[in-house]
Design brief:
Structural class: mainly alpha
Strand content: 5-15%
Number of strands: 2
Order of helices and strands: EEHHHHHH
Helix content: 55-70%
Distance between the termini: 71 Å
Shape: elongated
Strand order of the largest sheet: 1-2
Radius of gyration: 26 Å
Largest sheet: 2 strands, antiparallel
Amino acid sequence: MAVPTQFNVQHKCGHTQERDLADKPAGERAGFAAWLANQPCTECWKKRQDRKLSKEVQTERAELEEHALEDQERSQLPILIGSSKQISWALRVRYELLRDAYTSLVEEGALDEDRFEADVLAPARLVTAARWWIDNRENGDMIIEILADPGQVEVGEGTENPY
């Protein structure tokens, strides 16, 4: 009599999955199937991993937002205008853009502190629309240029292309 390779495993989450254990040695299949029964099914395991990741991402975002708020006060940056989701996102974006600009421009010697204040921080203080920071999140290498001519973004203005 051959040792089966297909097992219907009733997982601890209540779901049943048919598992092909042909890749396991014949003497280990039943034991492995019993071990699988004490684990959540594949879908439930993935959902749990996603929730864990989501909590990690939420914690990371909260910490970054806290740093951004501290930086906002220290650098005398304006409170952003937009929806609460936009503001939360834009705070992090603005913080990262300005932090990276400081690193690449001042710490690497392209600008001194006074020029950074004049070319980056002073114009950044004039941009209050959260949407502007979000729209320019990928333009960190051009921060001086985009802040020199930020354009006009009206709060509440749609993001859809009208054409």
